[in-house]
Write a structure and sequence with these properties.
221 residues; alpha/beta; Methyltransferase, Methionine Synthase (B12-binding Domains), Chain A, domain 1; Rossmann fold; five-stranded parallel β-sheet; 9 helices; globular; binds CO-5-methoxybenzimidazolylcobamide
């Protein structure tokens, strides 16, 4: 299992999406994240192990970027490779529940284009039995407010990956809470913390998707 985790981590770190993908040149002709994930799941590897590999790869490329050994195109390729793995995980995360428990509206806040964490949270919450309305990335506060009108009684989730967009997250939370104090608002993303949650008045900070589902289940109207 450790070997598969390492292979996935390498594909994500290097941005090796699939066998036919010519990037990176030193891995040309080799299996990529797509083939390795498909084979591993057939062989009985758990979705959690594949996610562990993805996170490890992202951590490494993030560090390389920070230390100027990698650049934005490398981040883009890493994101594509992780997305290729997530495509295979989706069926494993489906709950099979017929009746949906509630609606969860999610988006990455204004100015922020990172969507992998948001997509993962969406997938796991959908798998937990909720209808997910995904507003996408760079979501202006008004769009969250429109969704609130369209889906009364929904939970709202906001994701932010940049320290520079956290303040936009705060503005969105405050506007949502002003318009509808009873709406439960969840926030998450690498720079977000419990003290930030407290400062902006969100109901819950979740460091990952699993905690978010637990919160929703405990706070169903
Ligand atoms: Co960017 N980026 N990026 N990036 N990027 C980071 C975030 C960074 C930490 C890299 C670094 O310097 N080490 C850094 C931010 C520094 C900071 O603000 N302190 C950074 C930067 C600087 C930038 C740019 C400014 C670079 C530039 O242009 N010079 C630029 C900004 C663009 C913009 O948004 N306006 C930029 C661009 C990009 C890409 C577009 C190229 C690409 C994203 C592609 C995509 O998302 N489709 C990208 C990537 C891939 C990263 C890293 C490498 C990986 C992010 C990721 O997907 N992680 C990242 C470094 C890193 O994280 N190690 C980095 C995997 C994902 C599953 O984790 O999103 O944390 P995460 O989600 C987790 C939890 O946080 C949580 O659950 C998830 C699962 O556990 N969670 C929630 C997330 N949302 C939640 C919501 C919830 C609950 C939990 O409830 C609602």
């Amino acid at each position: 299992m450790q070997e598969i985790i390492e292979k996935i981590a390498t594909c994500v770190e290097k941005g090796k999406i699939s066998r036919t993908c010519p990037f990176p040149p030193e891995m040309a002709g080799q299996d990529g994240a797509d083939e390795i994930a498909a084979e591993a799941l057939k062989g009985g590897i758990t979705p959690d192990a594949l996610l562990e590999g993805c996170m490890l790869g992202m951590e490494r490329i993030g560090k390389d970027f920070e230390e100027e050994r990698a650049y934005v195109p490398n981040l883009v390729m890493a994101a594509e490779a992780m997305t290729a793995v997530m495509k295979h995980l989706k069926p494993f995360l489906e709950s099979g529940e017929v009746k949906q428990k509630g609606t969860f509206v999610i988006g990455t806040v204004a100015g922020d284009l990172h969507d992998i964490g948001k997509n993962l949270v969406s997938m796991i919450i959908e798998g937990g039995g909720y209808k997910v309305v995904d507003l996408g990335v760079d979501v202006a506060t008004e769009k969250f407010l429109d969704a609130l009108k369209e889906h009364p009684g929904c939970f709202i989730g906001l994701s932010a990956l940049l320290t520079t967009t956290m303040e936009n997250m705060g503005d969105s939370v405050k506007a949502i809470k002003t318009a509808s104090p009873e709406t439960r608002v969840l926030i998450g993303g690498a720079p977000v913390s419990e003290s930030f949650r407290d400062r902006v008045g969100a109901d819950f900070y979740s460091p990952n998707a699993q905690h978010a589902v637990k919160f929703l289940n405990e706070h169903l109207p």
